[in-house]
């Protein structure tokens, strides 16, 4: 019996009900046809330019993200439960960010220590007291979910700064429909292709007060950014301009875009660069990516930034353990989605436990991202554990620890054929006048046998995610 939950089959090897029709189809496919289709997918993705930049990779800066043709399938009732939990969680997170930049009730109530906010690298004192449109800070959230144990979902982390990956969700669906149209004729699969329209509607809904026909742009750091394909893709799909900082300027407390027809006022900026680089007059003075004076326009309420400046304080790993308490505090509800049990190494008792069990735990930097700056105890050498122990002792408040979850697996094509590989799921939650999402998300898969690291930057792949309609 496997020690992890298999998405497609139960412990006895019986195919789960929601996979049965797909499995029947799969059994009828010849290996030659599947291999041809996989090669076609790779070729098409290369032609389109769906790549991911891997920083520090001596072998090259651009890689194709491997795409697997076996979908991850979720039945309607499971998605309904996830949807409700995601709406609840993102609502509370938005309320939390608004609170810490205004009345700070959650600090006064003693639920979160003040130092966890004010000493957080993502806290922006410049945002204190600023009124943002509709009180929404995280307009686009990518919430990472994993399934573990007997099949229960957990939130692994909340991505509220500049979450990426939605373009791969959309392109994966398009590819599956192109390769295997017969599957979509025989399965009631909830659509995702309307995401760009939903995103544009969401962004327009949070335009500054008094703007009836807002101009929306996507702001990119430029073509050398790891997610540049996605920036260009979303701008094209929404029918809006893709701009860099040099394409925008501030005049008379408004933001304008340079066009061949002259300056055009910009009302909503879907920005895909970090806070530090947005305005060299307010943050990093050496930034050539931002717009001088942008913060002053933002403070005046004459432009909307999505996501808001300072939102990152809510997705920092040191704040993650408090999200269930946020839900209880702001919504007077019990959390519908569970956190992963977490030890905060700044607490002496949690540090002692972590140091005594390093070979069993996953230890993460609180400001880290992309699975860098972390230790996966069971997969580490004794030397790696000893080295990490010294880092942890030297700066315990910079780390949290979690149990090594037995992530669920899904059948995946590998060199040896079909084999189980571990997966996660990132749904994309849009907050504006309402909270909405397309049914599904980006399923990432760890392609190396036994690996729990699904990140594209470290060799992970992706799958299409099917939400079955009833």
From TrEMBL:
Residues 71-446 form the Circularly permuted ATP-grasp type domain. SUPFAM superfamilies: Glutathione synthetase ATP-binding domain-like. It comes from the Bacteria. PANTHER family: BLR5612 PROTEIN, SLL1039 PROTEIN. This is Circularly permuted type 2 ATP-grasp protein.
